[in-house]
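Request: Have a read of the protein record below and say how the chain folds.
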Amino acid sequence: MPLLLFKSDIRKIYKSSGTTFLIFNICAVSAFLASCLLPLIFRNVDNIAKFSAMYSAAAVGGTVNAVAVTQIFDVPTDMLNGLGLVGNFTVAMIVFSFGQFCRTRFFRTKFNHPHIDEYEQELAKGGNPDGKQKQPCTGKAKAFL
């Protein structure tokens, strides 16, 4: 594998894969930095170095890598379950953060929102906020009201 990497041309890989290669490397470096900070922050937790290695393996290569690292470093099974919890919490926080960021004034002024703009114009005109046209009541429907 190392001989293959020595012959690889990073510029050619970047041209063929586009920004995906760059984004993956940013994520891999951030996972590495997070795995370096975890043992410093949680010094009193048992097996935190093993959990940190498992976390970075899962962030870069997925669950298969996390299981492999678990077997190599003999990490307790409950820590693997904890990794699932940490992963789910991380994704939930990212989705929540992106949802909140989309509502900021900066995001609303710098990026186009055609559907939201159309909805707000309809509300300003006094339209129905549901976007549905109201049907007049017929005789049968009035009997039930």
In short: Residues 77-101 form the longest helix (25 residues). The two ends are 75 Å apart (CA to CA).
